[in-house]
Each structure stands twice: as structure tokens, then as C-alpha cells.
Amino acid sequence: MDSHLDYLENSHNYDSKGMSEEEVEKWGNLLFQMDISLDEKKKALGILANNGNIIAYKHLKKYAEQPDKELETWAQLALGECTVFLHAELMGEDELDFVYTGGGSNNNLIKVYFMLLPLEGKCFEEWQNKITENEVKYVCRDLKCEIEWFVFKADYLSFSLLMPTDIAISTIIEQCVDNCNQFGGFLLEEYYCATGAPDEKEIDEIIQIVRNGIKAENR
After folding, report:
1. Which of 32, 35, 95, 192 meets the CB 3.0–4.6 Å disulfide criterion with 115?
2. What's the total number of domains in the chain?
């Protein structure tokens, strides 16, 4: 079975919303154990994806950076889905119906939104924005992705692209960050991704999560 369809058909059979932090940690740690079957890791990915909190997100992000080869697509989709649920939590929504759907010129790509941050205490400069745009375009061309748009601000930059389902999110964004940082190390290695762009009111919350793994205090 195609890995994308396999994920859609089998990853939503687990109710993990009521799990304790200890239980989430247990399932997250399971992903990195060598003696665990792929089926059990699929279960862990489904549980963590649907849990959608910051602990689950951190485990999924780490696993997606170097997943089992057979689970590369599962790891990518689970991370994306967990990010969307985390996004929904920031928006104050109780539930968010979510399914990856085909997009792009051949209806075979998924939409992904990325946010990148400057180093602590720094703001982006115009030359850094230009380098980032050029390097993202280079990576996307090489990996057969389609760029939709860029947004450049002093405290963050973001872009939306359509990417193949058989490429891990981390493959794209980490290559972009590595390439850019060859020109002076101005990008934070941590990043935010989702399937849609956040509202302006959510930006501060997301920046806090990316930098510190916590929400900003209510103002």
C-alpha cells in the first residue's frame, strides 16, 4: 500500500487526547528503540500526531529528522498533523478536521507553511532575506517542490510551498537552513511548520514555542 494512503487509513484509530505527559513521553521514546516493530512505531506515530501537544511535537520532530527508512512518509505526515493540532490549540479551537490533500500542478503535492527565526536578539536584514529566498528556491528546485509565496518581517520570515509526499519535511527545511547559514549563521535551527499560515495574532505564540517550547504569557 502507498505510504501516504496507509497513513490516512490507519493513523487515526487512537484516542490520545486524555493521555498524561508521562504516557506521551513513553510513546515518544518508543520511536527510538531498535527492538520495536514498525507496526508498533506506526501506532506511536498515530498516537503522537493526534495528541498534538508540545511534548508529542518534539518527539515527532526529532524522529522525522532520522526516521526508519520504511516510515519516512509516516514520520513526515505525523509531524505535519501534530503541528496542525498544536496550531489549533493556539487558536483556541477544540477540534480541527484535517486531511492532507493533493495539490500542485500534478495534484500530487502537499501544502506546507514554514516559519524561520533570526538568532536570539537579532533582526533579519535585507541581504539575509535575499539569501534565504535564493537558497529556498534552489532547494525547492532540486527537490521538485513548488514555492507559493514568501513573507519577510524583522523578527521572522515565512514561506509556503507544495512538496512531494515522499520527501521528509526536515529534508527540505534543514537543507535550506544549512545553506543559508553558510553565509554567516543568521538562522535559528528550530523552525515551525504547518499546513496553513497562522493569523497575525498567533505569531508571537508560535515564536515563543519555536524558541522556548512554551506559549507566550497572556497579555
Report:
1. 192
2. 2
Separation of alpha carbons 88 and 68, rounded Å: 28
Helix axes 38-51, 72-91, angle to 10 degrees: 20
Residue whose C-alpha cell reads 503522537 in the numeric block: 48
Q: How far is residue 72's CA from residue 63's CA, in Å, rounded to a whole number?
A: 9
**For the whole model, what pTM was predicted?**
0.56
Q: CA-to-CA distance for 16 and 212, rounded, in angstroms?
A: 24
Regions of the chain where pLDDT drops below 70: 1-5, 8-9, 11, 15-17, 84-108, 165-166, 214-219
**How many other C-beta atoms are found inside a 10 Å radius of the C-beta of residue 140?**
19
Task: Report the alpha-carbon distance of residue 203 to residue 8 in Å, rounded.
Answer: 29
* Containing structural domain, residue 9: 3-91
Within 8 A by CB and 6+ apart from 35, the residues are none
Query: Which run of H or E residues covers position 191?
Result: strand 187-194
- What CA–CA distances, in Å, run from 190 to 36, 57, 73, 200, 208? 28, 12, 21, 20, 11
> For residue 26, is it within any domain?
yes
